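If you are new to this repository, start here. Below is one unmodified record pulled from the training split, so you can see the exact layout before writing a loader.
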Amino acid sequence: MNFQKDKRSLEISLLTVEKMVEELPDYFARDELFRQLVVHTPWGDKLPKMTLGGLVERLKLLEENGDLLTPEERARVEAARRAYEDFVRTHRRQVEQRLRREFKSYLNSWKWYLDELRENPEKIADYRQEVHNRRRLDVLIEEANRWGFDLGRDNLQELEKLDAWFRERWPEFAE
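And here is the target side for that same chain:
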């Protein structure tokens, strides 16, 4: 997923965030990690996958680019943020468990990519597509820390180990 800072992308992100917040109760009732959504936009329907990390990432993007939004759009972002945070406060245990599951899923994806890279160094050409999984892990860590959630020490240690290998082998790509 490539989040650009142009106005249309921000408007689509806002519509997506609003849809994700609306879907939170059903998303948790079904115990899904990745949920397909249909978001109606003026530019056609979009089909994002809903995850907590995806919601948080979009909220952060919108808040960081508030200067590109209208006052009405900024108010909608604030309303979505409040609704999300109210949901988290009400369902802390379930949200923590889902964040941990999502973290583990993205950790596994990052590990699989690095395993492929170990076997075939030419896979570094895929880095730009794969790095989003790694960045999503940072989003999840930041959100878990903000709420005092535990992502699992073994998961965090595994990420440190993977990152150390990547930085050592591919320092020009390491962030």
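Two things worth knowing about this chain: Residues 7-90 form one domain. The chain has two domains: 7-90, 93-169.
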